[in-house]
Design goal:
about 450 residues, alpha/beta, Tetracycline Repressor, domain 2, eight-stranded mixed sheet, two-stranded antiparallel ribbon
């Protein structure tokens, strides 16, 4: 086989390819039909079994039309496989272009594999025939290279370049397996494979948090789906059935670390979840002097399966209306806030999540948050409050060390660009050891 179809571009060659003679006017679609018929013949007989006569018969054209429109079999094969690759690429591109978010982009990849790859045996055969030909003939590698480039460009609309390359390789690999495997494929395996590529449970080095000296740092995080980590955490607490008793999770961390945001995200994942904020218990109480209130009025009744309806004494004293409520039938109770995992109530808490955050960034966004709400006055007053708060918080956490009881560590100030639904996490507990001290300043 030769690949000299790109040379010898005489006038007669150009006329034959464009079909400008009388025969073309009488049958203007003949050349296209021959190309389509060529693909049909290859799908049935392979490249080795394709001949001018078989293709002419499949296209219902005279045998002479083959040499009229094409200089030889090489030119016909090249154009046929170019059309095939372009058609598949355009279908691929339409799938990815229709996706509007990460979830629908993953669903589009799954549909490409299950519907377009697994669902069309003809395309599977043609793909492998092209791969085999490209492995031997460099000219055909131009077709496969352009095909891969278009696929990756479509994937990179929704995924970073590395993930796009991995997804492209996954699709190609599953194409090979599907053509050779005699067993029925479980669609769930494809879904899980795509999820593992898109949401890898892999180490992400991230060591530049500024922490207090007493708090150990996480030397490496894994980027993963927050929903999966939450599901695992809840499953790990279900060691014995407790009808009517909620799972009690404490989310602790320094102020403005991201605890409230995390609690809301987790609650949205599990129906029947109630959230109690330590801010409500700490209101007009001595700084970090409310742990007994939490234990006696929230944790104890909840751990016994009783509903909670509690008005803190400071609310009554300062005419604040309302109550702290945990309804009967609550499935999960999240207590969130600085000091939420206080050792005073540790025996009643099923799991602790420690939110580790860069001290400088957490302080900055905490001050900006308070200024926006006006809760602590102007900037000077807010900064003065934070100075007082920070000293009390550090003393409390240094003594209580809730990170040493944590089952899960979540990064509260992750790097920019983390996709929605993902989190940087590490397994707890954290304990001081050589090489794990936080960067202090």
């Amino acid at each position: 086989m030769t690949t000299d179809h790109v040379a010898g571009d005489s006038r007669s060659d150009r006329e034959r390819r464009s079909g400008t003679r009388q025969g073309r006017r009488n049958d203007p679609d003949r050349r296209d039909r021959i190309i389509d018929a060529c693909l049909d013949v290859i799908a049935e007989y392979g490249v080795a079994g394709a001949s001018h006569r078989k293709i002419a018969d499949a296209a219902s054209v005279p045998l002479g039309s083959m040499t009229y429109h094409f200089s030889g079999m090489d030119e016909l094969l090249y154009e046929a496989f170019t059309r095939f690759a372009t058609t598949v690429s355009e279908r691929f591109d339409r799938r990815m272009a229709a996706a509007t978010d990460p979830a629908s982009a993953q669903a589009a990849v799954v549909a490409i594999i299950l519907d377009d790859v697994f669902g069309d045996l003809r395309d599977l055969v043609l793909t492998h025939e092209l791969y085999t030909l490209a492995a031997r003939e460099p000219a055909y590698r131009d077709i496969t290279a352009a095909w891969m480039a278009r696929s990756r460009a479509a994937l990179e609309r929704h995924f970073d370049p590395e993930t796009a390359r991995l997804l492209d390789a996954l699709i190609e690999g599953l194409t090979i397996h599907r053509s050779l495997d005699v067993e029925t494929h479980d669609p769930g395996e494809v879904v899980r494979a795509v999820q593992r590529v898109c949401l890898p449970d892999r180490a992400v080095m991230f060591t530049d948090f500024t922490l207090e000296p007493e708090e150990p740092s996480v030397p490496s995080w894994r980027r993963t789906a927050l929903a999966e980590e939450w599901e695992k955490l809840l499953a790990a607490t279900a060691t014995a059935p407790r009808p009517g008793v909620p799972v009690i999770v404490a989310i602790d961390g320094r102020c403005a670390a991201g605890k409230t945001t995390l609690a809301a995200e987790l609650a949205a994942l599990t129906p029947g979840t109630a959230i109690v904020s330590s801010d409500d218990l700490a209101w007009h109480e001595p700084l970090f002097g409310w742990a007994e209130l939490l234990r006696e009025n929230v944790l104890e009744p909840a751990s016994q399966g009783r509903p909670v309806s509690f008005t803190p004494p400071a609310w009554v004293k300062h005419d604040r209306t309302g109550t702290i409520e945990v309804p009967a039938g609550t499935q999960v109770l999240i207590v969130e806030g600085a000091g939420a995992a206080d050792a005073v109530g540790a025996d009643l808490i099923d799991a602790v999540i420690w939110v580790q955050a860069d001290r400088t960034e957490a302080t900055r966004r905490g001050i900006e948050r308070d200024l926006a709400s006006g809760v602590n006055g102007n900037r000077e007053q807010t900064q003065a409050f934070w100075s007082t708060w920070y000293g009390a918080e550090r003393a409390h956490l240094a003594a209580d060390r809730p990170w040493e009881r944590a089952k899960l560590i979540v990064a509260g100030t992750p790097p920019a660009g983390l996709q929605p639904g993902l989190a940087l996490v590490a397994d707890g507990p954290l304990s001081a050891s050589p090489g794990l001290a936080g960067h202090a300043s």
